[in-house]
Amino acid sequence: MANTTSRAATGPFLSLPGPVKSILNMLLTLVLTFVGLTAVTFTIGRVMPADPVLAIVGDRASQEAYDKVYTEMGLDRPIYAQYGRYLVELAQGDLGTSVMTSRPVIEDIKRFFPATLELATIATLMGVLIGVPMGVWAAVNQGRLIDHVVRVLGLIGYSVPVFWLGMVALLIFYGNLGWVAGPGRLDVYFDGVVEPVTGFILIDAAMAGEWDIFDNAVSHLILPASILGAFALAYIARMTRSFMLDQLNQEYILTARVKGVSEPGVVWRHAFRNVLVQLITIIGLTYASLLEGSVLTETVFSWPGIGQYITTSLFNADMSAVLGGTVVVGTCFVGINMLSDLLYKLVDPRART
């Protein structure tokens, strides 16, 4: 009788298989996070001093015209009713219409977000491919010259203001030396030549066989990707060094060396395998932060990405565009974190239980 009562008290959820419970927990977390994100974003958008009605009707509109648009936008309703309406429209894929471009916000995001995604992806790859070996190398040579060099480079890359570094890079490598192309994503005479299939200019140009446009896009991408990549590299190298130092001081490393395992085997096959689990989370967070934090880089280099789109919309009191862009970026941030958790479980079998 007691066992029956105990099983009944646990409920049907606890009787589900482990993988099913994990998926349900993940979905529930995703839904709650998304609702919280939209609620905070929507509330901030409504309490800001910018008047979205004036952005539509202009300063010289009559009071009647102002009141009409104010009512049509639903601003006369309580904020919870406005939020409920926003969620319903959001579930239908409707992010509103941009005052600045007069197009649906979802179409603007489809146009601008791939540029940010392309930039952040290449910057993250640069940070991983260079930062991880640098961090490992510094940890293996702790206290030596190379370790100090890596630490100083990491400190510089992590602390120097992005806008200052971007302007200096433009002045030297574009203005004085002419090694790379300047601001923008393409030269003006290449705009509109390649049909945007994926939104990634490198992929679209390669698919169309337009290699001169591909080269031009690479030339434009080098500087902004390097600036963002320097930030990613500094953070990843610093964390990799810290993780590796912790692992190299463990007893199992000493045991492996006593057994005659070669130093590269000790470093990469033993220590780095345990570091990899932590690095997945660090790389995921870095990628997400570049997606949401590339506003200054996009502004300095006139990069037509989602960061510049949100900033320009904010200055023009285009709150539908600001809310839509913020929700999309926040959703990507949450999605990347959840993907990192999945990869964490794939790499570390202990996390699956």
TrEMBL record:
GO terms for cellular component: plasma membrane. Residues 113-344 form the ABC transmembrane type-1 domain. It comes from the Bacteria. The chain crosses the membrane at residues 23-44, 119-140, 152-174, 217-237, 279-301, 321-344. InterPro entries: BPD_transp_1_N, MetI-like, MetI-like_sf. It is a multi-pass membrane protein. PROSITE patterns: ABC_TM1 (PS50928). It is found in: Cell membrane. One of its GO terms (molecular function) is dipeptide transmembrane transporter activity. Keywords: Cell membrane, Membrane, Transmembrane, Transmembrane helix, Transport. It holds the Pfam family BPD_transp_1. Belongs to the binding-protein-dependent transport system permease family. This is Peptide/nickel transport system permease protein.
